[in-house]
Amino acid sequence: MFADFDWGAALMQSPILGVLILCSVLTLGFAIERFTYYRRRGGDTGPVMRRAMSAVQRGRLDEAVEHLNELGHPLGAVGIGTLSGFSRAPHEAEEIMHVLLNQQKLLFERNTGLLGTMAAVTPLIGLLGTVWGIMRAFQAMSKAAVAGPSIVAAGVAEALVTTAAGLVVAVPAVILYNYLNRRQATMLAEAENDTRMLCVAARSVVAHAEAQEAAAGSTVHAVRRSQAQPRATVPV
What we know:
Structural class: mainly alpha
Distance between the termini: 127 Å
Order of helices and strands: HHHHHHHH
Number of strands: 0
Helix content: over 70%
Radius of gyration: 34 Å
Strand content: under 5%
Largest sheet: none
C-alpha cells in the first residue's frame, strides 16, 4: 500500500507530512538518548547496599561512601552526598538528601518532557494534515467541475497518510514517556528509602558512641569525686 504511494509528490504538496517526518526523527533521537541514559543509571543496588550498610554499622562512613561510588544508580550520588553531609552536620542530613533527590530528578527529566510533547502534538499535526488533504481534494474537484474518485483520490490519500504518520509517531512516544516516568519514580524511591536506612544506621551508631562516652564520663567523674572526699581518721 505505502510502496505505491507517491511520497515525493506528497512532500511537495503537503508541508504537514514533512513536519511529521521531522517530528519522527526528533522523537527517535530523544528516545534513544533517554533509553540509553536510564539503562546506564539503572542496575541492582542490593549487593552494594549491603556492603555500605555493613560499613555504616561499623562506624566507617568513608568506607560506605567508597562502596556507593561504584553505583550509577541515583542511590550512589544521593547516598554519597547525604553521608558526607551527615558526617559534618547530622541534623541537616535529611535536607541534603531532598536536595540531591531533586537534582537527580532534574537529570532524569531532561528531554523526557520533549517526548511527552511529541506524543501530544503529533496526532494534532496529523489531524491538521487530514484537514489539509481534504481541502486539497475539494479544491481539485472544484477545479475539475466534476465529481469522481480519481479527482479526490490524491487528497484523501494524503489526508489518511498524515493521520497514520501522526499516530505512528505518537503511540511509541506515549509508551516510552510513561515507561520512563515510571522508571524514574521507582529509582528515586529506591534511592530515598535506602539512603534513609543508611542515615538511621548512622544515627544509631552515633547515639551508641555518645552513650558509651557519657557512661565512661560519669564513671570517671564518680571515681574522681570519691577520691576527692576526705578519709575518716580512726582515733588511737
